[in-house]
Design a protein that fits this description.
By secondary structure, this protein is mainly β. It has one helix and five strands; from the N terminus they run βββββα.
Length: 73
């Protein structure tokens, strides 16, 4: 999983699966979209206006619970 943030456009992207996939986009609302790949797998989540959507005008810290640590690629 990779989480990236572009402060110039205030967009957050959570990529759940690595690799190149042909995806369709499902918009949940004006700010949140899901990228759905082959077999209806969730590939990524895009959040526009991330600071507003996630609240308090700043990006919250990421807390990982019960996640096994792997060696970076």
């Amino acid at each position: 999983m990779k989480i990236s943030y572009d402060p110039e456009v205030d967009a957050l992207y959570i990529r759940l699966l690595e690799g190149d996939y042909e995806c369709r986009t499902v918009r949940l609302n004006d700010e949140v979209a899901l990228n759905i790949g082959p077999g209806e797998q969730l590939i990524g989540i895009e959040i526009l206006d991330a600071r507003e959507v996630l609240g308090k005008g700043q990006l919250p810290p990421v807390i990982l619970e019960n996640v096994a640590l792997a060696q970076p690629a």
